[in-house]
Amino acid sequence: MALKVAWSSPYGVSLPEAYVRVFELLVNQTTITAQLEFYADEAARRAGDKIPLVRAPLEVPYSQDTPGGVLAYVYGRLKTVPGFEKAADC
User: Fold this and answer.
1) Could you state, in order of their start, the residue ranges of all structural domains in the chain?
2) Rounded average pLDDT per 10-residue block, the chain, 90 residues
3) With contact defined as beta carbons under 8 Å apart, do 45 and 2 qualify?
4) I need a surface site. Which of 21, 38, 78, 88 has the fewest CB within 10 A?
């Protein structure tokens, strides 16, 4: 599970098909903290020897109502973050 989105890095690099994936989750009673990895595109991620361009945390409120599971919930919440509204599942 991952997202594809047009994204600009904090360093000024624009990526028209950035590949963003959750690689770690920390869940407690009130929040879920997801660690995100950003790659130039899906091919860069699949190459296996590429490190992500950026790693960044995303914190969302914990919810017991996660019918698709915690990971799907986090991706759904990520799509509500400004700049990720047009992200596509991949």
Assistant:
1) 3-89
2) 92 92 93 95 85 92 84 94 94
3) yes
4) 88
